[in-house]
Amino acid sequence: MVIRAFRGGRTAAVAVASGAALVGLAAPAHATGGTLPYVALGDSYSAASGVLPLDPSASLLCARSTKNYPHVIAARTGATLKDVTCGGAQTKDFAAAQYPGVAPQLDALGADTRLVTMTIGGNDNNTFINTILACASAGVLSAGQGSPCKDQNGSKFSDDIDTKTYPAVKAALQAVRNKAPDARVAILGYPWIMPAKAQSGCFAKMPIATGDVPYVRDIQTHLNTAVRRAAAETGATYVDLAQASEGHDACQASGTRWVEPALFGTNFVPVHPNALGESAMADLTTGALGLG
Asked: What pTM value is reported for the model?
């Protein structure tokens, strides 16, 4: 089986055997004299890459869905949405073209923008893809025993988050503030991919060794903490998904999980939120912003 993971239109493959929110300091997310001008930025978790139907206005490389949380938020609030989310986006793609014909995401912002949402940072340094591919490969080779990924990589992923991802996310949020000074800016954490502890039957769907399950979870915790810190330091609202997404990880049954597994899932891009997850992300975001 081949896994196409985390990089949206940029494909990486590996063969395998098988609500607390920190309220920001920006202006209130309410427009006067019309609908709310809303710009959605971010990566595949914002774009809902892998969820059908695709957005016909987007490049196919972005794999953007009309069921992503920005579309859900716009439908619920009546906001006027400009959606430039794109699978595989990194913070650098805010200021530069990600693909030919795909403009820098910051170009969508303007002085009239009043609401901005995003998930970003997971693709920087290939944090997500390298973690999943390295740990899945190690898990298969160890037949699911021990903690081979942790033993091989140690603090490498977390160190990259601290030294590279955190400052990049902070700079991206400041760039958003500079382009849209009157907007309310919200950045979401990433919903849980793995449970806190190994679960029976999960290895068939997420081939992570038993001892590496908490290791992968800790890396994601580290990433979300970095995003939270960047939000606090730039006056953005951090939408915390940790408590709400507990028990909705990729190991759970269809209809319960918010993130699809690497194997035997329903999305054409695995290890990404499904439509249920995107709807829940919209719920938490509108609640954090007082839009619900």
From this structure: 0.88
Residue 103 neighbours by CB distance under 10 Å:
13
Catalytic choice (44, 46, 49, 245): 44
**H-type helices in 55-186, by residue range?**
69-77, 127-141, 148-153, 156-160, 166-179
Are residues 51 and 265 in contact, defined by beta-carbon separation less than 8 angstroms?
Answer: no
Residue 238's alpha-carbon distances to 24, 56, 112, 113, in angstroms, are 8, 30, 22, 19
| Bond into 53 cis (ω within 30) | yes
Question: Read out DSSP for 60-94?
Answer: GGGT-BTTSHHHHHHHHHT-EEEE---TT--GGGG
Tell me if 153 sits within 8 A of 75, measured CB to CB: no
272: annotated active-site residue:
yes
Question: Nearest to residue 138, comparing CAs of 211, 218, 222, 220?
Answer: 211
Which two structure tokens, joined as six digits, stand for 80? 């006027």
Residue 113 has pLDDT above 70, yes or no: yes
The reported pLDDT for the residue numbered 257 is 98
Catalytic annotation, pick one of 71, 222, 248, 272: 272
Neighbours of 23 (CB within 10 A): 15
Residue with the two structure tokens 């740990």: 135
248: annotated active-site residue:
no
**Phi and psi angles of residue 273, each rounded to the nearest 5 degrees, phi first:** -60, 145
Which pLDDT score is estimated for 267?
94
Beta carbons of 195 and 251 less than 8 angstroms apart? yes
8 Å CB contact between 62 and 49: yes
